[in-house]
Structures are given as structure tokens and as C-alpha cells.
Amino acid sequence: MNPRNALAASATLHCLTGCAIGEILGLMIGTAAGFSTAATIALAVGLAFFFGYLLSLIPIVRSGAGLAVAVKVVLLADTLSIATMEIVDNAVMALIPGAMDAGLVNPIFWLGMMIALAVAFAAAFPVNRYLIDRGKGHALTHQYHEGHEGHEGHDHGDHTGHQHGKEQS
């Protein structure tokens, strides 16, 4: 696989993981608490952003970056990807008949969620590839990953405006 496609796929899968954790947790909490559909969706989206950011923040802070720098990098790197994933995920769930009203114990909900997350991955992948090609998105975070794990074959010196070891402006 092309190294940039591999990096984009890795970034998208990373985003999908955080979004899925937040979405499912938010839906579980909202359903259990008896929230309205709108409030449940708002909670799920909020938690999707929270966990998406958190999964990126932890390794950057562990690398020795200060919290303020880590938050700035994560917000710049992940917001567009997470937003794309959330918009598509929720749109697909809304389009699948009965998925939003199915409840957590109904297979229609879980099938809908799997379809929605797969479509969201497909939508966010080109967004991440576009950002990586311009030295943005996940390209901003990988300099903080110890040894650049998971980036074998990736040309680290080929990001426009990207300088290793220096904070991005």
C-alpha cells in the first residue's frame, strides 16, 4: 500500500476508534437515562469528539509535550476528520429505517451502527489523505510519537511546512 494511504488509513482508523467509543457510550447513557433522541445524539457526538481527541492527546503528552501544545496539536490535527466522521455517521444512521429508534438491544441498531461507521470511515479517509498530503492532520501528531511507530515506509521529510521537533505555528 502507498505509504501516504497507509498513514491516512491509520489516522482514519484511529479517529473511528475514538468516535465509535464516544458514540456508543453516548447512546448507551442517553438511552439508559431516558434522554430525548436529540439530547442522546448531542451527548454521543460530544463524547465522540472527546474520545477522538483523548486518543490523540495521550501519546503526545506521554512524548513529553506540554498539555497546551498537545491540545493545540490535537485540535488542529483531528477536528476536521472527527467532524466528517460524525456528520456522515449520524446522517447514515438517520437514513437507515428504524435504526435510530431501534434501541441498544435491537440488532437493527447495531447493524445500522456498523454500516454508518464503515461509511464514515470511507468519507473520512480522503479527508485525512488530503490533510496528510499538506502536512496537516495526522502529520502534525506523528512527530510526537516515540520512534514514529506505525509509520514505516512513510517519508517523514515530505510534509509541506512540517519540521520535526518543532511546534507547528
From TrEMBL:
Keywords: Membrane, Transmembrane, Transmembrane helix. It comes from the Bacteria. Pfam families: DUF4396. Residues 8-137 form the DUF4396 domain. InterPro entries: DUF4396 (IPR025509). The chain crosses the membrane at residues 32-55, 67-88, 108-127. This is DUF4396 domain-containing protein. Residues 147-169 are annotated as: Disordered.
